[in-house]
Write a structure and sequence with these properties.
Largest sheet: 5 strands, parallel
Mean pLDDT: 89
Radius of gyration: 19 Å
CATH topology of the largest domain: Rossmann fold
Structural class: alpha/beta
Distance between the termini: 32 Å
CATH class of the largest domain: Alpha Beta
Low-confidence stretches: 1-9, 11-15
Number of helices: 7
Shape: globular
Number of domains: 2
Number of strands: 5
CATH architecture of the largest domain: 3-Layer(aba) Sandwich
Order of helices and strands: HEHEHEHHEHEH
Strand content: 5-15%
Bound molecules: NADP nicotinamide-adenine-dinucleotide phosphate
């Protein structure tokens, strides 16, 4: 779980950000307390961000992004010029099978709020995260971004997949109607420090790492499911 909002926020000027400063770049990173958010934060710190850039790394303690008013309050506080949207209700196979309604509703709400508010606050660029697991279950390889909507996703994570696919639809709709520069990237398996290593709720690679660790520690064999 995340740390407090104060620890998650880097604001060079301190406190609220003045909307008058037209040269500033305020980059709001939703999901900043997660695996990918920590990765971006490490790169920003290592590469020495530019003087006119302020990165703000958010967690769910700063606002529940499913809630429009809480999300709007964040935009009013920071007036972001750019948004990197990582926050999502995520989980492994078990969780996807058990909670499809939550996966659909939570992600649709989070994404709707971020996209709409990015439009309302004239964000110059919004980059959101999709996922390779949203591609059609039956497809040809190699896959590319033109193939996202070419058939149903795998039934195990259909609700998460359709919610994520709608982000691609929203990006296009806001571009056509308002000229917004909203786009998305599609990472494959991501793993590393700050990952979720929970034995039942993690993604495949951190789950395997944890099982290998336990098997080695206990001198036992381990079993891997295959389909
Ligand atoms: N990990 C992968 O292998 C992978 C692969 C492809 C795509 N992606 C995508 O990449 C993005 C980042 O993934 P990740 O692995 O870094 O996720 P993660 O480690 O599970 O982090 C999820 C982040 O979302 C935040 N969050 C969740 N619900 C929220 C809510 N209602 N309001 C505000 N914040 C909320 C969490 O905040 P708290 O820390 O406060 O809970 C956390 O910062 C996601 O969009 C995911 O779909 C990930």
């Amino acid at each position: 779980m995340s740390s407090s909002s104060t620890e998650n926020i880097e604001v060079s000027s301190g406190g609220n950000i003045s909307v008058e400063d037209s040269k500033r770049k305020v980059i709001l990173v939703t999901g900043g307390s997660g695996l990918v958010g920590h990765g971006i934060r490490a790169v920003v710190e290592r590469e020495n961000k530019l003087d006119d850039e302020t990165y703000i790394f958010l967690s769910s303690q700063d606002a529940d992004l499913r809630d429009y008013q809480q999300t709007r309050a964040l935009f009013e506080k920071y007036h972001p010029t750019h948004v990197i949207h990582l926050a999502a209700y995520v989980g492994g196979l078990y969780k996807n099978l058990a909670e499809p309604a939550n996966f659909y509703n939570y992600n649709i709400s989070i994404n709707q709020n971020i996209v709409q508010l990015s439009h309302e606050f004239k964000v110059q660029k919004l980059v959101s995260c999709l996922s390779t697991c949203i591609f059609p279950d039956k497809t040809s390889y190699p896959i590319d971004e033109t193939m996202i909507h070419n058939g149903p996703p795998h039934p195990s994570n259909f609700a998460y997949a359709y919610a994520k696919r709608m982000l691609d639809v929203q990006n296009k709709a806001y571009n056509v109607q308002y000229g917004c520069k909203f786009t998305s990237i599609i990472p494959t398996n991501v793993y590393g420090p700050h990952d979720n290593f929970h034995l039942e709720e993690s993604h495949v690679i951190p789950g395997l790492i944890h099982r290998f660790f336990l098997a080695k520690q206990n001198g036992q064999d381990m079993t891997i499911w295959s389909v």
